[in-house]
Amino acid sequence: MACCKGRAVPLSFDHKPEDKSELGRIKKAGGFVARGRVNHALNISRSLGDLEFKRNRSLKAHEQMVTSTPDLISCKREGL
What share of the chain is helix, strand, coil (3-state, %, to 5)? Predict the structure, then answer.
């Protein structure tokens, strides 16, 4: 969390396989989501490991079924 103009602002959020953007990437990479799991196995869509979901050599790292590429949220910091 960060404080921007007196309000708490989240700087991260969970990535669920069934989220619209995550599901789109997973399907484009040749995968599927069933019962909230990528290819019936993994219940997350962002991970540093899980290399079996990152083996499509024709795709960039951020396009793989499971990616470690973060979403960045920024907030301008003002002086103290």
Answer: 20, 15, 65
* CA atoms of 58 and 67, how far apart (whole Å): 14
* CA–CA distance, 41 with 23 (Å, rounded to integer): 15
Of 20, 33, 25, nearest to 64 by C-alpha is 25
Give pLDDT tens digits for 35-70: 999 999 999 999 999 999 999 999 999 999 999 988
Rounded to whole angstroms, the Cα distance separating 4 from 42 reads 35
Q: How many angstroms separate the CA atoms of 67 and 61, rounded?
A: 6
| Cα–Cα distance measured from residue 57 to residue 11, given in angstroms and rounded to the nearest whole number | 31
DSSP class of residue 1 equals -
Residue identified by tokens 């960039």 is 60
